[in-house]
């Protein structure tokens, strides 16, 4: 069973609307959680990073939240734009070694005009 | 260059042929990762290099897959006797330090090499 579960698998919204993507994880303990954006045909790019002591982190219209008690994170996108159409990947890192990262399968977001 | 560079961007090969995929990481980044991404799927870890340490090969799916990192910089992923199920995008990423450090360790990805095995 994947230790990082993302929902929904895909989402379609209209331009200008808000949306929230979910990430639930079982990795414990963990050192940080990142959200990456992957445009079609491109490599993922980091949007936000949060350590276990942080509750929220913003990057422009993107706001990530973290509840370390319930092991849940969300990525909220405000006033969506067509360029937000991409896959959003949640990555949870454990502090065991330099390669202990768990990737979610991603949420595919489509923003329509 | 400023980012992670991968080549070729696209490779079409026949079943049974060998292929080599190249990754040139960001200068100064000690950590280098290879991932595989099948159509519509998440990233699958393949192999990890950190400085001069022995690589973590735990993600390689079979002995047909191998990778080298020469001089702590450029890496080559080799797939021998390719099979149709090897068709995927192969992504390389580098990091200034191990990416699990609490202070960050952001992964910088290349654009990927799309492999199609006919």
Explain what this protein looks like in three dimensions.
- The complex is a heterodimer of chains A (113) and B (118).
- Chain A has strands at 4-7, 10-14, 19-25, 32-38, 45-51, 56-59, 62-67, 72-77, 86-93, 101-103, 107-112.
- In chain A, 0% of the residues lie in helices and 56% in strands.
- In chain A, the strands form two sheets. In chain A, strands 2, 4, 5, 9, 10 and 11 form a six-stranded mixed beta sheet that branches. Chain A has a five-stranded antiparallel beta sheet with strand order 1-3-8-7-6, with no helix packed on it.
- With 118 residues, chain B is mainly β.
- Helices cover 0% and strands 45% of the residues of chain B.
- Chain B has strands at residues 5-7, 10-13, 19-24, 31-37, 43-50, 65-69, 75-79, 88-95, 108-109, 113-117.
- In chain B, strands 2, 4, 5, 8, 9 and 10 form a six-stranded mixed beta sheet that branches.
- Chain B is globular and about 35 Å long.
Hey, which two chains have the biggest interface? Answer: A-B, 28 and 27 residues
Tell me how many strands of chain A there are: 11
Q: Could you list the spans of chain A in which at least 5 consecutive residues all have pLDDT below 50?
A: none
The tally of beta strands of chain B, per DSSP, is 10
Helix content of chain B: under 10%
Could you report the average pLDDT of chain B, rounded to the nearest whole number? 90
Oligomer: heterodimer
What is the first-to-last residue Cα distance of chain B?
Answer: 33 Å
N-to-C series of helices and strands of chain A: EEEEEEEEEEE
Give the structural class of chain B: mainly beta
Q: How much is the radius of gyration of chain A in Å?
A: 14 Å
Average predicted confidence as pLDDT of chain A: 92
Number of helices of chain A: 0
What percentage of amino acids of chain A are in beta strands?
Answer: over 45%
- Please tell me what the overall shape of chain A is: globular
